[in-house]
Specification:
The chain is an alpha/beta fold. Helix content is 28%, strand content 20%. The chain contains six helices and eleven strands. It has helices at 36-47, 52-59, 63-83, 168-177, 190-198, 211-220; strands spanning 8-10, 18-19, 31-34, 86-89, 94-96, 123-131, 134-135, 144-151, 154-162, 182-184, 202-204. Strands 6, 7, 8, 9, 10 and 11 form a six-stranded mixed β-sheet that branches. The chain has a three-stranded mixed β-sheet with strand order 2-4-3. A two-stranded parallel sheet has the order 1-5. Helix 1 (36-47) packs across helix 3 and helix 2 (52-59) packs across helix 3. The longest helix has 21 residues, at 63-83. It is globular and about 45 Å long. The two termini are 34 Å apart. Mean pLDDT is 76; it is low at 1-5, 99-106, 110-121 and 233-252.
Length: 252
Amino acid sequence: MPRPCKRRRVCAEPSCGHFGPKDPGAATGQTVIMTLDEFEAIRLIDLEGRTQEQCAALMNVARTTVQAIYSSARGKLAECLVNGSELRIEGGDYVLCDGSIRGSCGCGNPNCRCGAESKEETTMKIAVTYENGQVFQHFGHTEQFKIYNVADGKILSSQVVDTNGSGHGALGGFLADMGVDTLICGGIGVGAQNALTEAGIRFYGGASGDADKAVEALLAGTLAFDPNVHCDHHDHEGHEHGGDHHCGGHCH
């Protein structure tokens, strides 16, 4: 049975959850979804000037989790600013501050009602698109994932699992059913990115090379990835267009 995903503590909801270009002609027609926990990381780190360690304590998660949340959020902001995409802030695995003692978490938000003492998350379940020991470069066509169980920043075990023919639309659910909370992959389309976000799965696209080393680099905070990764052939629908298609050099 997959372990339940730990919910991130959020102490402030956005006053506006929908942003887009003022000029309709500048819009790309694509929608980027930022989850509330990603919004919270941006608020704490970029607006309030908190360190990642402080942010982790306030959100009741590990520093490595905050690093993943923050990197994902910054990539989405860049996508919207550079490409004129619409931004919606919604969803995610989070819990609003609802304890009995206001301000006990030290977040500085006068409306905060945190009462629980922070407990750091120590486990992760990381999946990598996998082929012959390498990070496979097309998420929607991967036939295998290598899944790693991690505790306290160390790999405890790993296994290779077949996707059993699941395509773009089903892979997010496949990973969620396996209890995965983090994905490392090559190219991945916007539709698949949104599906993973809605499932509460963090992803690092544009990665390459040895799968084991990629996971070790992620845990060390040195993974080379592209926060603006795209697979342009699938951006419109996020589904397969043909069995012989391969992204090749078009996946970034």
